[in-house]
Write the structure tokens for this entry.
Amino acid sequence: MKLIDACTLAVAVVLQGAAGATLAMTEKDAASNLMHFAFAMKGAEQCDKLGYPSMAAQKRWEKSHASLLVNSLKRIEQHASASGQVTPEQAKDVALGLFVRFKDRYDQEMAPTVTGKSCMRFNETLSFYDTKLISD
């Protein structure tokens, strides 16, 4: 299965909202988490390019939430695998593909609005993302 097909399937699976998840974190929660992790990563990269060092803060933030990132990826994998439409190996590609898709979404939707002023407040952005993360 091509990565682009896996990405498309991932979005469909997430939006489908299948019931019966055995974990407290739903696939929608996991997808939301992945979006915030991807946005934090891309935001730090962009601010660094604009001359505002942000990668160290982003790496600390990501490290402090590493288990949630891993659990979110696993939840997407489990949901994709449970759909019966992909193999377990392809389910990993689905989760990673969704993450890549969120990074692309950042580039398209968020990147054009980033300025030096917003980069100076990057730590506040990370704090905002903190409030949006959904743990299991």
The two ends are 30 Å apart (CA to CA). Residues 1-23 have pLDDT under 50 and may be disordered. Residues 3-17+25-132 form one domain.
